[in-house]
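Hey, I'm writing a tutorial for new members on how sequence and structure tokens pair up, and I'd like a real worked example in the thread rather than a made-up one. If someone can provide the structure for the chain below, I'll link this post from the tutorial.
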Amino acid sequence: MPLLNAATGLARVINVDSGGYEGAIEPSDFPALTLSIFQLRGHSASMATLALKHLAIEAPHVSFVNAHPGLVVTKNLDVVPGLLGVVGRAIAWLFGRWLATPLPESAERHLFLSTSTSYKPKTGEHSGVPLVQGLDLHQGVDGERGSGVYSVKWDCDGPGNQVIQLLTEYEKNGMMEQVWQHIVGELERVEREFY
């Protein structure tokens, strides 16, 4: 955060995760040690987006994007162990041509997320590359255009109304603060254990 606060130009954070797929958070298991694979994506996406919202309060001149890249076939699939790895590699080999976003296209989309005024910060004079005809400010996770925190799927679109309502409810109920306290607690724990 000190480096972002010291930036003299565009300041933006891109979190490559499961943006646009926010779901129920299990507050008794923030680390997701007991969650099923079906609960995991929504849980982790919501936690990441709420953490970005917390950071945006501290730094409204920085924009934050939680982005889901979609299925992108990379060498990372080669190191996924067990049955999940076998299934993932089989799906990528059999259907990747139709299901996957090509790596160059994914890179282009992430460059767009990193630089476009469409994902501008809430405040500040540095908002990114100017919009071209046909583009507008993107809707943030609070439902407002250009609000500084965004959650997008592979096609740089999102969030849906359901995600906006869920995150708004979590923020009202204090879940954002609980998530942030958990993250800070984990960082402190790791620092104590390893340093």
